[in-house]
Design brief:
- The chain has a domain of 227 residues: Rossmann fold (3-Layer(aba) Sandwich), CATH 3.40.50.720.
- Helix content is 37%, strand content 17%.
- It contains twelve helices and 13 strands.
- Strands 3-4-6-10 form a four-stranded parallel β-sheet, with helices on both faces. Strands 7-9-11 form a three-stranded mixed β-sheet.
């Protein structure tokens, strides 16, 4: 996202507590200032001079969220609201919040959900997103413009690639083991979104007229990009010669199942052009995995699986159970 914001003429400063330092997918040197700090420890001076905030910092998925639910709520909800309050007090006028389509959780397979659909979150991660959306709306006024980006499940090549996302994971296993390994029965629906398209959507949300985005929620993705997990597996199998689809022992339906409509964002942000579909994304991932000589051990190790990275930090005594660094990072 940072390079796209910079290319659009914005000055960008990062904020990161470096849980995943060294987990880069290939050489990466961010061309920007980065504040090394836990979001829970932000001070008013950290927000001074900023016009807007892209709020991405969170315990990033369901397995991590379940590791310590109290810390998930502490980071994802309470610290998010404090960040918003500090940003508003500092004079930032736009706050683009990374929510998630997982707020819809356990939905009927027959429904295609727009932004007015009822929330049905299943996990602490998804529940924390619902809580922030509710509380953040109350801060909106003539000077402070929150925007709620309900991202579909992201995939694709990025400098901090995640191997725990479904398209990235299925593609990696197919290439390195010959198995398209399914952890559910393949029936759940998921909206899917390339990381570049997600980043473009955030840039568009910053640059859109205020009336188009003020206190609005948007499902972030392209029309036609809702898939059953089995469909994704079929796409991967077709692009990896000799690979076979396999199901884990006891694989059953996943309670997280939802299809969403992307009509609203197309109407409110007509300048936004998303270009990726899953077939293209799988081809991109395969090319990158081959260039990086990805192995099964790489894919299943601590570098690309967020839950393993955090667990290793905790086991080594670097992180406490509250997900705070025991020894301050340099």
């Amino acid at each position: 996202m940072a390079p796209l914001l910079q290319a659009a003429g914005h000055e960008v400063v990062g904020l990161d507590n470096q849980y995943f330092e060294g987990c880069d997918f290939g050489p990466y040197q961010p061309n920007m200032k980065v504040i090394r700090k836990d979001i829970r420890d932000l001070a008013p001076e950290d927000l001074k001079g900023f016009d807007g905030v892209a709020h991405l910092a969170a315990v990033s998925n369901d397995p991590l969220g379940n590791l310590n639910p109290e810390s998930t709520y502490d980071i994802n909800h309470r610290a998010s609201m404090r960040l918003a309050e500090l940003a508003k007090a500092a004079g930032a006028n736009r706050f683009v919040y990374s929510s998630s389509c997982s707020v819809y959780g356990a939905a009927s397979q027959d429904d295609v959900l727009d932004e007015s659909a009822a929330f049905s979150p299943v996990t602490p991660y998804a529940k924390s997103k619902v809580m922030v959306e509710h509380d953040l709306r109350a801060l909106a006024d003539s000077k402070f413009c929150p925007v709620f980006m309900r991202n579909a499940t992201v995939y694709g090549v990025s400098p901090r690639l995640r191997g725990d996302l479904v398209v990235n994971n299925l593609t990696g296993h197919a290439l390195t083991t010959g198995r398209v390994f399914m952890k559910s029965d393949g029936t759940p629906w998921r909206p899917l979104l390339h990381v570049q398209d997600m980043s473009r959507a955030f840039v568009a949300a910053f640059e859109a007229p205020r009336d188009a985005v003020f206190n609005e929620a948007f499902n972030i993705g392209r029309p036609g990009e809702n898939y059953r997990i089995k469909q994704v597996a079929d796409i991967v199998q077709a692009q990896v010669p000799g690979s076979k689809i396999e199901f884990s022992e006891g694989a059953g339906p996943d309670p997280r199942c939802y299809r969403v409509s992307f009509d609203k964002i197309a109407k409110h942000l007509p300048q936004l052009k998303m270009t990726w579909n899953v077939e293209q994304g799988v081809a991109e991932l395969l090319t990158a995995y081959k260039q990086m000589k990805l192995t099964k051990e790489d894919l299943e190790g601590g570098k690309y699986l967020r839950i393993k990275t955090i667990s290793q930090h905790i086991e080594a005594g670097r992180l406490g159970d509250d997900l705070r660094w025991v020894v301050a990072r340099a």
